Known about the structure:
Chains A, B: This is VOC domain-containing protein. Chain A has two helices and eight strands; from the N terminus they run βαββββαβββ.
Amino acid sequence: MAQEEVQNGGPEKVAEVSFTALKPQLMVEAPKAADAVQFYKSAFGAVEAGRTVYPKRKADQEQPHVLSAQLELAGSTILVSDIADNSTPVKTEGTGYVLCLETEDVEAAIAKAVSAGGVAEGEVTEGDGACCGGRVGKVKDPYGYVWLICSPAKKCGDAEA
Amino acid sequence: MAQEEVQNGGPEKVAEVSFTALKPQLMVEAPKAADAVQFYKSAFGAVEAGRTVYPKRKADQEQPHVLSAQLELAGSTILVSDIADNSTPVKTEGTGYVLCLETEDVEAAIAKAVSAGGVAEGEVTEGDGACCGGRVGKVKDPYGYVWLICSPAKKCGDAEA
Lengths: 161, 161
């Protein structure tokens, strides 16, 4: 694995580090971040805690560029950001990524997300441990992100094949 | 937006739904999930809270298939899962996705992640509001996921361009 130099400490020096928050950040094509925020409010009941924007830079630009909107959802924070055409998108090359949302009422949660503009994918199934939950459904949002709607996690343990 | 039928309620019926947890789930090529879990422990100090596995299905298969490993990190939970070659990967078509980790010591956090096998990308810069933080660095992990290492969030507000 290639290693680059970092300031104030090379790879050999391993410091104690503590982290105060973990926030998934979802990029959407500018200027759709404001719409995406509205979708996450309608679909999942997210609450907006703040928004950092650039002011309008063109007279004909209807929506300001959203650097970051901060949404509170299920005790966590997610960030939603506009990505401009001329900016370098963040290259995530991971195999796959979803957001698991736990709820007591999987069907109602899916229905609400669909009514807000999401698309249900497949049937609600008994989970295979993917979320450590019992029942799992899937919703793709209008911005391309996949949400697993799961019944609350059980204690993880060895599953029988 | 196409809408599919869901059981127990059509799109018109919008129920009150509450969510109890949000957990980002990272898929990695099987059988690397166990390695990825080790990386997130070494790089970020994640603590494993549980793991659901299929037992070995072949005598020559050294590592069990990880359906889901649950990691506690910065007060949140992330899930790490093996994706088998023959399974349908979750198709996330979003514009870009990163995980923001907040810490008081951005440089030390990056150094630690690099020493664990991550790759620092670019310099630590004064944030443009992406995480609502002051200073931001970037680390790509060996499984393709990008982590922003940020100083703690300030109150989000309108930024001047």
